[in-house]
Fold:
Amino acid sequence: MGGLDATGPPPGAEVPNGAPRHVAITMDGNGRWARERSLPRLAGHRAGTENIRVVLEALERHGIPYVTIYAFSTENWGRPEAEVEGLIQLLGEALEREVRALHERNVRILHLGSRSRLPAHLAEAIEAGLELTKRNDGLTLCVGFDYGGRREIVDAVRELMAQGATPDEVTEDAIRGRMYLPEVPEPDLIIRTGGDQRLSNFLLWQAAYSELYFTPTLWPDFGQEGVDEAIDAYRRRPRRFGKAPDAD
Structure:
C-alpha cells in the first residue's frame, strides 16, 4: 500500500476518441442470472468470471488503459460459507487459466485490497500473477478482491498516523498517496450491471468525480454491445469537476 512503482501507462496517457482513461466495474447480477435459469448461484458466478475476458477485450478495443473490477468485497465474507468457498475457488481457477493468457496480451495485473484473509495457496498464486505481469505496459487490470472503500481510507489514515503526521500534514494528497494503488488514476467511469444504483463501498475516495453508469443487464450478459453503450454515454457527458460551464 502507498508505495508501488508506476510501471504501466502514464496517468496522463491520451485515450482515443474521448473514451475514459480508467473504467471501473461492479459486476452485479450473477446470482439472478443463475436463478432465472434454475441454476445454483455458483453457476452464475462461474459465468460471470468467464465474462470478464469478453469485457476486457471490448474495453481494449476502445483503447482504455486502466480497468478495475470489483470481484469480492469486504462485506462478501458474510455470504453463506459454501458460496464464499466457491468464489475463492473460482478466483484460483481463473488465475490458473487466465494469467498466462493475460501476460501474453501484455496486460499488467494489480491486486486491490487485502490478502491477509485468503488461503495461503491463493495469496501465493496472486503474488505470482502480479510478479509475472509487472513489467507489461498494455492494459492495467486491477482486481478488487477482499476490497472495501471505507477500509482503504481507514488504512491510509492509519499509515499517516503511524508515520507521525501532524494534523496539518493530513491532506488530500497525503491520503491519496497512501491508497492501495496510488499510481492508478481515479476512474473516469464506473459501470454497475444488474440494475442496482449504488456504489456499495467501491472506490469511495476515488469516485468523487467519476461518471456513474447503471444498466439493468446482468453481468454474465454484459458484452461488447453493453460496453459500447456505456462508453458512448460517457462521451456525451460534460465533465466539469465542480466548475461552472463555459459561457456561451
